[in-house]
Amino acid sequence: MKVVKIDLPSEVKDNELKIFPLSDVHIDDPNCNIKKLFEWREEVLNTENGYVIINGDICNMALKNSKSDIYSASMTPDKAIDTVVEFLKPIKDRILSACSGNHDSRAYKEAGIDPIKRICRELDIEDRYHPHACVVFVSFGKSLKRDCRKQPYVIFHRHGNVGGKKIGSKANALEDMLGIIDADLYIISHTHQAMTFKKNFYRCDYRNKKITAIEKTFVNSNAWLDYENSYAVALGCSPSSQQYPVITLKGETKKIEVKL
């Protein structure tokens, strides 16, 4: 895991941050919904306090010995990486952190190249990259409960590698992140199932000998593939929503809202 520390200004629009996770684009797959992807980028650009977390599999990376079909790819792996770099350049300063996915790991094992790492290097944000997972400490705005000091949040994100056809199994993989690290927001991808839920638990305060109820927020990001001619049809998987989550971190009080 990589720890990424982001210190943003006290004065941010509406005293809140908007987080836009990006994963499972598979940009070199012919079923990638390019039009909707550019609509997503336009919303990020038009959101003054909008930031991005990259969570793997932006490229499909169909290689000779991989599961993906190299003959149906819309572009070569090298061209796919260049295309993603150009797509992300206008929002590169909005990217908080990035980690790789299973398609990226597959490319590294077969060809010795990690697409996300190269993309981050081209964008000059390699210091915010990790192949497996990132823990992001982000502070911003003014907290009413902290004498107007900045509101801190901890975000834990990784691509994930466990799925299943049922929503319950996908939710279980997301909830399992709670057993790795104590964070406010957990983001996973891989399953192509956009979803969110909350879970509470009690944190022990050893110094003051009391317990405090803590709310955790879990988000599974969406994929960007049209269904009709995709591999999901052959596997008997149901169509997945392309509605992308927008996560709002509040500054006045520690509160997270998710819109799908």
Secondary structure layout plus pairing:
Elements: E1 2-7, E2 16-22, H1 34-46, E3 50-54, H2 77-88, E4 95-99, H3 102-111, H4 115-122, E5 129-130, E6 133-140, E7 151-158, H5 167-175, E8 185-188, E9 195-205, E10 210-220, H6 231-235, E11 246-250, E12 256-259
Parallel strand pairs: 1-6, 2-3, 3-4, 4-5, 7-8, 8-10
Antiparallel strand pairs: 2-11, 6-7, 9-10, 11-12
Give a verbal description of the structure.
The strands form two sheets. The chain has a six-stranded mixed β-sheet with strand order 1-6-7-8-10-9, covered by helices on one side. The chain has a six-stranded mixed β-sheet with strand order 5-4-3-2-11-12, covered by helices on one side. The longest helix has 13 residues. The protein is built from six helices and twelve strands. Helix 2 crosses helix 4. The chain is α/β, with parallel strands linked by helices and 260 residues long. Helices cover 22% and strands 29% of the residues. A hairpin with a 4-residue loop joins strand 9 and strand 10.
